[in-house]
Amino acid sequence: MRAFDYVRATDTREAVRLLADDPEASCLAGGTTQLDLMKDGVLQPPRLIDITRLPLHGIERRDESLHVGALVTMEELAADTTVAERLPMVRESLLLGASVQLRNMATIGGNLLQRTRCRYFRDPTVPECNKRAPGSGCAAVQGAARMHAVLGASERCIALHASDLAVALVALDALVHIQGPTGSRTVPLTEFYLTADVSPERETVLEHAELITGVEIPLPPPAARSGYLKVRDRTSYEFALASAAVQLVLDDGTILEARVALGGVGTKPWRAHAAEHLLTGAPATTATFTEAAEATMQDAWTVPGTAFKVPLARRTLVRELQTVSGVTA
Amino acid sequence: MTRVTNASRRDTDDLPAVIERVVTLTVNGRPHTLRLDTRVTLLDALRDRLGLTGTKKGCDQGACGACTVHLDGRRVLACLTLAAQAEGRDVTTIEGVSGTDGHPHPVQQAFMEHDGFQCGFCTPGQIMSAMALMAEGRTGSDEEIREFMSGNLCRCGAYPNIVAAIREAAARGGHDARL
Ligand SMILES: Cc1cc2nc3c(=O)[nH]c(=O)nc-3n(C[C@H](O)[C@H](O)[C@H](O)COP(=O)(O)OP(=O)(O)OC[C@H]3O[C@@H](n4cnc5c(N)ncnc54)[C@H](O)[C@@H]3O)c2cc1C
Ligand code: FES
Ligand code: FES
């Protein structure tokens, strides 16, 4: 690991200034992505700004939205009473991710910004990686692909965005609050991520020296039902092969409102607008669910190792639509 | 921890090879002031500088749980925590869990009675995790124990006995056990 200077910031504006002063500095939250990739030699910042002591640890309910500080941990958010009562999909996506030890360290801001687990990205001895070295190619496309993406993917890059939480949050139209050297801005999470077929090397709209200060989650209507299904190679402590976040408002067998996002398949957390469009106003039946799932996966771009994900993701979504609606016919 | 890679570096690398920092760590109730390379993890500081080798290094990348310690009473991975990040926090390691009278902690006792190990390498991490599990109130069923202990891998596959040990420690009132 390359030597680095460690600076502990105590004030958000100071942290932003420290980052702005050094174009190569990185911030350190829970460290579960950052230190991991520094050990691998993928990230080599000369300076780490530890932001964990910044006053961004609160969870606050304001009317019908939940404001979550960027440094709230995954375990803390999962334990929140509003989350338990009103946001079951968020709670499930948190508790099905990583392990308790990691969730005690990992922050909400860091979770949204976690980097891909693609083994070629994580190994700097592999020369071809358009994320690490723009223009060098993509070793995964020709190589051993499995835990890779099929939506927002192309021969340029098939790296998966592996967050579970972000899948639930894109479905809910969460907002990201950002503070930078020139002020604050708010970006909808659905517009926060860029896809790897467009820009493998740039994953989000966040600029250098911009900090996520918090996430705002609009609370669903009380009549909404929701859930998160994660399908993986082992029962626990594993990344998703496919996952589905579903929220429905039903009235007498008709779907009044649908929110759907998929994980384990996209180069970004994948909001399934096409599925929502088909579901809204339609009868809650397995035929409708199947049509919605097919529409979502129709633009998939696969390599031999990832072809299985198309039917898997379809079935995952149909299953979760059935579970949330209670309709299996 | 240092690895040689062919990753591109700045040509004008004006950083010194080592950057040090004085860090005060409170481990098992005792403060220690150390001069450490900023790269030193809590795990390496415990093992190599404080001689507390009970905390194990398995993967060194957050995947196995062998390095589990408590930070302000919560279980975390010492291999992905910089020593500097633990400053001002209470660190508890396996060396700090037995009673002042030298008696093992009830969870340690239960692991011995149920043979919750084979080679023993994962055991300190399992015990630190199990103590936290009880404090978290997640010992309601074997299924719950397995799910919330899933961050601790055991190469020897001692899982059934580990679950049995935790079940018993919880039944004996482990919720009130010292954390
Ligand atoms: C073994 C293992 C298993 C895992 N399994 C899962 C899983 O199943 N599901 C899942 O969703 N995740 C999983 N993860 C990923 C984990 O959730 C993320 O690593 C974690 O959420 C990152 O948060 P952090 O606070 O540790 O971020 P850090 O590692 O500290 O930071 C991550 C990145 O974000 C930047 N950053 C952090 N906070 C901010 C901020 N507020 N503003 C601007 N930039 C910031 C950092 O500079 C860094 O580049 C797993 C990780 C490991 C190691
Ligand atoms: S050594 Fe820390 S998780 Fe394996
Ligand atoms: S007892 Fe050998 S690894 Fe668990």
UniProtKB/TrEMBL annotation, chain A:
Matches recorded under Gene3D superfamilies: 3.30.465.10, CO dehydrogenase flavoprotein, C-terminal domain, Uridine Diphospho-n-acetylenolpyruvylglucosamine Reductase, domain 2
List membrane-spanning regions. Answer: none
GO MF terms here are:
FAD binding; oxidoreductase activity
- A Pfam family matched by this chain, by name? FAD_binding_5
**Which UniProt keywords are given for this protein, alphabetically ordered?**
Oxidoreductase
> Do you know which SUPFAM superfamilies this protein is assigned to?
CO dehydrogenase flavoprotein C-terminal domain-like, FAD-binding/transporter-associated domain-like
Q: Where is the FAD-binding PCMH-type domain?
A: 1-222
Which portions of this protein are annotated as coiled-coil regions?
none
Protein name in the entry: FAD-binding molybdopterin dehydrogenase
- Source organism (scientific name): Streptomyces spiralis
